[in-house]
Amino acid sequence: MAGETDTEGGGVIDPGRAPAVEISGVTKVFPGGIEAIAPLTLTLEPGRTTALVGPSGCGKSTLMRLIAGLDQPTVGTVLIAGAAPAAVAERGELAVAFQDPSLLPWRTVRRNIALALSLTRAPIDDEAIDRLIALVGLDGFGDVRPAALSGGMRQRAAIARALVTRPRLLLLDEPFGAVDELTRQDLVAELPPLWQERGTTTVLVTHSIVEAARIADRIIVFSPRPARIVADVAVELPHPRTPELSRTGAFLAVVDRVTDALARSRGRDHASRP
Ligand SMILES: Nc1ncnc2c1ncn2[C@@H]1O[C@H](COP(=O)(O)OP(=O)(O)O)[C@@H](O)[C@H]1O
Ligand SMILES: [Mg+2]
């Protein structure tokens, strides 16, 4: 199996461990004829972080659900390291943190995170859980139930839960939506080094172009529904991407390219409609 290769040295991505995501000729048409994804072919490189941006309702979450194996394409295939998403999920190698964090209400934050480990039959590592609780800024809230947390805190708990199993593929759909600005800044600074160190293949949906440029190695810009790729922007900036870096010309050039692509795709769409 590819995953048996050993890595030496922290931060080195082992291409044998990180899975590529291959989306081939995928479309999604919902009952009633709503076409969410136009034929889409896209390969996400192993161990890299790809951000997906596009207008609201263009099909980003639909695509994430297809990659997660939570739904099936109408046409085409999604393969993760050559395997079907559902099989990868079954092996506990894929984790998701979506907009609506589905925490179990009767379990504390700590026990929600521990459940993810149990589901993959991994031993419960209390220290790792504590570190993640601290990383997402929930120190002191480990023994609290979700109902006593704000929406942003629940989202952060869901991020910790997604990270605890050290997934090979991490899918984040607007994970910072309800998270307050300061915590969001912390997460944007601290999560990418963690993924790099672990060699995680990460897909992030975000509304924030600046956030995408801070986090991602590549930004895919989608058109309004049905989602088509209108720009594919490589972000060749060093990590860690500090707030200082985000004031440099190179960073602002990336933000400009993505902003322009979004604006153009919307303009064309409006112009082409009778
Ligand atoms: N289960 C579903 N049944 C019918 N239509 C859906 C379903 N899920 C999403 N859609 C529609 O597909 C389109 C894309 O939705 P979505 O992928 O959630 O967009 P985004 O995440 O980019 O905002 C929207 O028009 C939405 O209403
Ligand atoms: Mg969405």
Your description of this structure?
The protein is α/β, with parallel strands linked by helices. It contains 8 helices and 9 strands. The strands form 2 sheets. The chain has a 6-stranded mixed sheet, sandwiched between helices. Strands 2-1-4 form a 3-stranded antiparallel sheet, covered by helices on one side. Helix 3 (109-119) runs parallel beside helix 5, helix 4 crosses helix 5 and helix 7 packs across helix 8 (249-272). Bound molecules: adenosine-5'-diphosphate and magnesium ion (MG).
Please tally the helical runs, counting DSSP H or I stretches of 4 or more residues.
8
**Are any ligands bound, and if so which?**
adenosine-5'-diphosphate, magnesium ion
Topology order in helix (H) and strand (E) letters: EEEHEHEHHHEHEHEEH
- Please state the average pLDDT score: 88
Low-confidence stretches: 1-15, 269-274
Q: N- to C-terminal separation?
A: 54 Å
Q: What is the 3D shape?
A: globular
By oligomeric state, this entry counts as: single chain
Question: How are the secondary structure elements laid out?
Answer:
Layout: E1 21-30, E2 34-44, E3 49-53, H1 60-68, E4 75-80, H2 85-90, E5 94-97, H3 109-119, H4 126-135, H5 151-164, E6 169-173, H6 181-198, E7 201-205, H7 209-215, E8 218-222, E9 229-234, H8 249-272
Parallel strand pairs: 3-7, 3-8, 5-6, 6-7
Antiparallel strand pairs: 1-2, 1-4, 8-9
Helix pairs in contact: 3-5, 4-5, 7-8
